[in-house]
Design goal:
alpha+beta, Hsp33 domain, CBS domain Like, 10-stranded mixed beta sheet, 33% strand
């Protein structure tokens, strides 16, 4: 059995770089089963998840983030929602994506929700023949304005978020020149690639390999799929349809219906009497 996925954070204080190693094999495994993805559709979904989840590092306590891809060519909708606790869920429409291409064109929205604030911060960008990995790196550069890059493994369901920290003592005349993000990555890339190829889920080994590159371990966070749907919420959702539809229309003359959560695919049996009782209680 695969251990829960985890996002490991390290810092090289001397040279001014950080690296976050995302071991995502359990998350990808669970999501692939939920969404029943195959072939090219699976590879697109995998790359999108691995590219996006390291952004959890930019969330403060109780904050939530959503990445919403509205692709027109080809047509699909992908929602990725995550929070500071490391919980995430996804919605993919249409559900069958066996032949989905890697690149797409359309609109991408990023929303950040703050505790005790009803209004999220939202940024919108047009994309033209981009991958989700390219989109996430554009968000890092343009929205977060950080010198960072998410790099995906070609061998395992893993990724790294690699960052160059801002220059210290910028107001002083003497500034020690540091390596660029590209040059520093070239130095450590062989060992990170070897770690990718091993597809290790051994937490201790991952930590040891990155520490051997001169990084100090500063903490890790478990990343897991978690849907907050419930039977009560589904009942409320179905009851809300009565504002524009009759009970007979909703149930099509039957005594019950099955409502499915688009995120986790859980089916809930909802009866006609339950909805009638819920509406009567509200009035």
């Amino acid at each position: 059995m695969l251990p829960e996925s985890r996002l490991f954070n390290f810092i090289d204080s001397k040279n001014g770089f950080t690296i976050s190693f995302f071991e995502g094999q359990k998350v990808i495994h669970d999501l692939a089963i939920i969404h029943n993805l195959k072939n090219k559709g699976f590879h697109f979904f995998r790359d999108s998840i691995l590219s996006t989840l390291p952004l959890i590092n930019f969330l403060k306590p109780q904050e939530n983030m959503g990445l919403f891809i509205d692709s027109e060519e080809p047509y699909f909708r992908l929602k990725l929602e995550m929070n500071s606790a490391g919980h995430m869920r996804t919605l993919l429409l249409p559900e069958s994506f066996d032949e989905l291409p890697t690149r797409y064109s359309g609109q991408v929205r990023q929303s950040k929700m703050f505790p005790h604030s009803p209004t999220p911060y939202t940024s919108v960008m047009k994309v033209d023949n981009h991958t989700t990995n390219e989109v996430v790196n554009m968000i890092l550069k343009d929205s977060y304005q950080v010198n960072s890059k998410v790099i995906l493994s070609e061998d395992s369901d893993q990724a790294v978020l690699f960052s160059r920290l801002p220059q210290k003592n910028v107001n002083k005349e003497e500034v020690i020149e540091r390596q660029s993000l590209h040059d520093y990555w070239q130095d450590i890339e062989p060992k990170i690639t070897n770690l990718f190829k091993e597809a290790s889920t051994d937490y201790d080994k991952i930590q040891r390999v990155v520490e051997e590159l001169g990084f100090e371990f500063i903490g890790s966070k478990e990343i897991s799929f978690k849907c907050n749907c419930s039977r009560e919420r589904m009942l409320t959702g179905v009851a809300g349809l009565t504002g524009s539809h009759t009970i007979d229309d909703i149930f099509d003359g039957k005594e019950s219906l099955e409502a499915k959560c688009d995120y986790c695919k859980t089916n809930y049996l909802i009866t006609r009497d339950e909805i009638i009782n819920l509406i009567q209680l509200k009035h």
